[in-house]
Amino acid sequence: MTERRFVLGDIPGVLWLPEDPGGQVPLVLLAHGGGQHTRSPGLLAQARHLAGDHGFAVAAIDAPGHGDRRRPGLIDALAAVLRESAVTGEPPGPGIAQVNAGLAAQAVHDWRATLDALPSLGWAGGPVGFWGLSLGSSIGVPLTAAEPRITAAVLGLAGREALAEAARRVTVPVRFLVQWHDRLLPRESALALFDAFASLEKSLHANPGDHHEVPESEVDSAARFLARHLRRSA
Amino acid sequence: MTERRFVLGDIPGVLWLPEDPGGQVPLVLLAHGGGQHTRSPGLLAQARHLAGDHGFAVAAIDAPGHGDRRRPGLIDALAAVLRESAVTGEPPGPGIAQVNAGLAAQAVHDWRATLDALPSLGWAGGPVGFWGLSLGSSIGVPLTAAEPRITAAVLGLAGREALAEAARRVTVPVRFLVQWHDRLLPRESALALFDAFASLEKSLHANPGDHHEVPESEVDSAARFLARHLRRSA
Description:
The structure is a homodimer.
Chain A: E1 2-8, E2 11-17, E3 27-31, H1 41-52, E4 57-61, H2 72-88, H3 93-121, E5 128-132, H4 135-146, E6 150-156, H5 164-167, E7 174-179, H6 187-196, E8 202-207, H7 216-232
Parallel strand pairs in A: 3-4, 3-5, 5-6, 6-7, 7-8
Antiparallel strand pairs in A: 1-2, 2-4
Organism (chains A, B): Amycolatopsis speibonae
GO molecular function, one term (chains A, B): hydrolase activity
Domain AB hydrolase-1 (chains A, B): 28-209
């Protein structure tokens, strides 16, 4: 597996390629969660797992306001949501979703530009899937709705706020992850977002635990879901 | 694979054994849905798949009032529920669950007697899992709560009615299947039953479609779930 850092305009990114793919290879666009970036250990481990163990090409970029694109304004906005949540006792997820929505328009543009550029960076082409939870889904839902090259998506840890309208334009197969005891996100909001996807083929997988406690078995299962669909559309 | 019919008291059953297991082999107790029985094509196909492709021993019995144990009273009771549902426009699932609950106490006794007898019918022993949806879960939830030999269960297409109390005594790993557009069963009722299981390890998998439209991919995935847990407890 090779790991190549690139900068596209002001967007820092990484492209992982499996050893000697010998032609076209399915690509996973891997979007990180809130507060993470393309050097976060969790993202690196997952990218290496998808490329090394599953033979995908994988691309990641820093989301607006994250990693090398830090902006104090974003941190201030999130801090305000968390203070508000502490006062009201309501989960902060819907407020975080509104902040994330402010990043998503730029992020959708960034991902489409990245997808245009990846062939010149060494990816030989092939079917494209998307993987992003939490902030990754705030970006991934409108991106998957807008970008016809994406033919399957792993989404989740996100709710209806700011996303239901775009979800109604998503028609590709979707795996949607819910944490049953998510303290950031009301359960009803997550179920309503799953409901909104127009996809004929969509599966919700819910497991006990808080926002960050997605079990490893779901990560493996989601990788098999992408492999199945990207191979089918190859 | 061998397929052996037996009768235990007044309980007709079938035991499938994989070719030459050479010692202990994990057993799946396979409970059929409402209106089905141990000669139904769907049950036979699934049992042969579990034994032939996954190497499980599989046992099935006719539920009370089903197959060779038909009772006109049961059909009358279900017909009354369906007439009531047609009049009120409410889904019939909760009413069917009450009828099923009337069978479950007997069925739990039947399954425990079957489990006692299976070694004398050719099963060499091993870890035990349960698989039953709809009526199979009306029986499977109280059975799994009562029977310590069962160490993993595939359940679903069932709601809180008559089952929530037993679910709170289920502690083994559970895979729980929900059909998102189930016209028999209110979605809220199914989600509440998933919520009730005391199991630390439980996953809800929801897919679009009506009661009888569980996708094939979930059947394969549930078989892998059982294989993983029964091998672990072996």
